[in-house]
User: What shape does this take?
Amino acid sequence: MTTYYTKDHEWIRVEGDTGTVGITAYAAGQLGDVVYVELPETGAKFARGDDFAVVESVKAASDVYAPVSGSVLEVNGGLADAPESVNAAAEGDAWFVRLKLADTAELSGLMDEAAYTAFCEGL
Assistant: This one.
């Protein structure tokens, strides 16, 4: 499995042609206490850069963008009952969706962990 990151603070963990997507711990920290997560329906299709989810916190509401094009295979239904888990496990159990990747070549435009860490340090 390889994990990639976007400048909008999403991560995607890829295994074969499936990617698990969520927001980074940095993003969760910037949002503050997450109180609501709106996820797409299974089967929904998104192009890279489309907004596919919304995260609401005590501070703000933020769109979450698809790091690559694909169709939703599964959503993390547990976030409906426990949106605060995004703050505790943003890059683990609090993933948002699993996508069937439409074009694995799109991954080349994303950052690896070292590049993402350097990007965040520059903010």
About this structure: Residues 25 and 90 are 5 Å apart (CA to CA). The chain has four helices and nine strands.
